[in-house]
Amino acid sequence: MEDVRKSYPGFVLRATLEVPLGQTLALLGPSGSGKSTLLRLVAGLETPEAGRITFGDTDLTPLPPERRGVGLVFQDYALFPHLTVYENIAFGLREGRWNEARIESRVREMLELTHLSPHARKRPEALSGGERQRVALARALAPEPRLLLLDEPLGALDLRLREELLLELRDILRRTTVTALVVTHDQAEAFLLADRVTVLRAGRVVQSGSPEGLYLRPQDVWTARFLGHRNVLSAPESRSLGLPEVPHLVPPAALEIGEGHPARVLERLFYGSRVGLWLEYRGLRLYWEGPDPGLKEGQATDLTIRFEHLLALNEEAA
Ligand SMILES: Nc1ncnc2c1ncn2[C@@H]1O[C@H](COP(=O)(O)OP(=O)(O)OP(=O)(O)O)[C@@H](O)[C@H]1O
Hints:
Layout: E1 2-8, E2 11-15, E3 24-28, H1 35-43, E4 50-52, E5 54-55, E6 58-59, E7 70-74, H2 85-95, H3 100-113, H4 129-141, E8 147-151, H5 159-175, E9 179-184, H6 187-193, E10 196-201, E11 204-209, H7 211-216, H8 221-226, E12 232-233, H9 235-240, E13 248-249, E14 255-270, E15 275-281, E16 284-290, E17 300-305, E18 311-312
Parallel strand pairs: 3-9, 3-10, 7-8, 8-9
Antiparallel strand pairs: 1-2, 1-4, 5-6, 10-11, 12-13, 13-18, 14-15, 14-17, 15-16
Helix pairs in contact: 2-3, 2-4, 3-4
C-alpha cells in the first residue's frame, strides 16, 4: 500500500507498506496505533481518503471486499454456528461455485493442514477455542486467497493455548505459500510468525525489518522499549559511562556478569529455565537474564559492559 491515508476524529493513519510475496508481515503496535484500521483498509472494509492498495499489478483500491481475493481471520473466529467444520470450510468454495469434487478435495486438504480431520463433522460449539481458530484459518485459506489477513488471531485464547497455537500457526504459514499480513500487539508473536515486522505508532510506520534486525537495531528509544529492551540508557546515563551524550541501547549480549566492575544484585526473578537480575552498577539499574548464576538479592558481583555492542539511539521518532 502506497501513502494510504485514513482519519478519524483525533487520529490520522498515514502509511506505506509492502508485504513481500509469499511471506508473512506482522504489523506490531500498541493499542490505538492503527493496526486494525490498516488491515480493514487492505480488506476493503474501510475506504482510504488517499493512496492506493495494490497486489502485484492489480489495483485493489476500487474493488469491494469480496472481489479482493483476501481471506480474513479475526480473534472472535466468526464461524457459522449451524454448520459443521467441513461445511464452514466449504462455505467460501460453494459461494465461489467450485464443483463438488474440487470442494471435497480442497476441504480435505485444509482439514489435514490444520489437523482438524477428526473434527470434520462437529459443529463449532463442540470445539475448543484453539480448534475453532484453526477452523477459521482453514476457512480463510480454502478459497486460495492471494492475501491472508489475520487480526490478533490468538487474542481470545488463554496463555497456554496461545503458545501452542502460535507454533502451529507459524508452521501452517510456512507450509503454505500464501502472502499474509498479521496484526498483533505482542512482540514475541510478531517475531515468531513473521518474516518481516513493521512497527506502527500513532498511525505512522516507525520502522520495518526482519525480527532480528529490528530487535538488534531499533532506531529510537520508544521502539527499543516497545520491542522489549529493558536496558535503554538516557543521554545523561550514557555520559556517566563515558559515552557520547545520546541515548544508548545495551543489548543482552553486551552484559557479562562475573568479571569487570563491582555491581550488586537488587532483585532476582526466577523464571524456571532462566533467571533475571536487576543490578546496580555505577549508579545505573541494569537488567541481566540467563542461566542461574547462583547470586542472591543484595549480593555483590562484577559486571562488564561490552561497549562495542552498544547502539546509539535517536531520542524519539519524528
Ligand atoms: N470506526 C471508527 N470511528 C472512529 N474512530 C475509529 C474507528 N475505528 C478506529 N478508530 C480510532 O482509530 C484509532 C486506531 O484504531 P485501531 O483499531 O486501528 O487501532 P489498533 O492499533 O488496532 O488498536 P487495538 O490493538 O486496540 O485494536 C483509535 O484511536 C480508534 O479509536
